[in-house]
Sequence to fold (230 residues):
Amino acid sequence: EVQLVESGGGWVQPGGSLRLSCAGSEFRFSKAWMAWVRQAPGKGLEWVANIKEDGTAENYVASVRGRFTISRDNAKNSVYLHMNSLRGEDTAVYYCARDAAYNKFDIWGQGTRVTVSS
Amino acid sequence: QSALTQPASVSGSPGQSVTISCTGTSRDVGAYHYVSWYQQKPGKAPKLIIYEVSKRPSGISSRFSGAKSGNTASLTISGLQAEDEGDYYCCTYMYGSTLEGPFGGGTKLTVL
Fold:
């Protein structure tokens, strides 16, 4: 079954760090752009970052640039989101998604919840 | 703040048709044929229902259709069913960085 499975969410204090992981299966992971999309409680979808198939290019939404880093390990069919200097406004469910082409997100994980609070 | 503007809510009765608009600019919606739409049910991940303005992925009902005119894209759901209730998001592609990201703010569809 084609799927993405996220892990690594949890509770963290403001200023803290967290690493999210997303493992893909049953598709050519190494040939796909991958993205992280988040959704704050009661809010809409917000694109966070994406990474090129070979990891040589990354893009970020302005609000996380310099604090978050997206990376991937194609040997493990996995993409990661390293989150530093976390703020309350980063509280959200984080989804990883395959970007099949030009922001066509055709495969989504189930999401992992991140709560930033003291 | 979203790059694309959607109505906050729409509603319709079973069997009717509803249309959700998605307004961008000449740099995104108006510039590319890359508009996608996602359906999200409570507590679930979003699901792709339209891509490249009007194409449907395998398994998506033909009751869902997409179109674009100028800087505005639209999603039409015909023969409305109770199961269509949920949130709908449009998404576009824009070359280069953006402050807001590619998603619209979302529209809540209520089936009366």
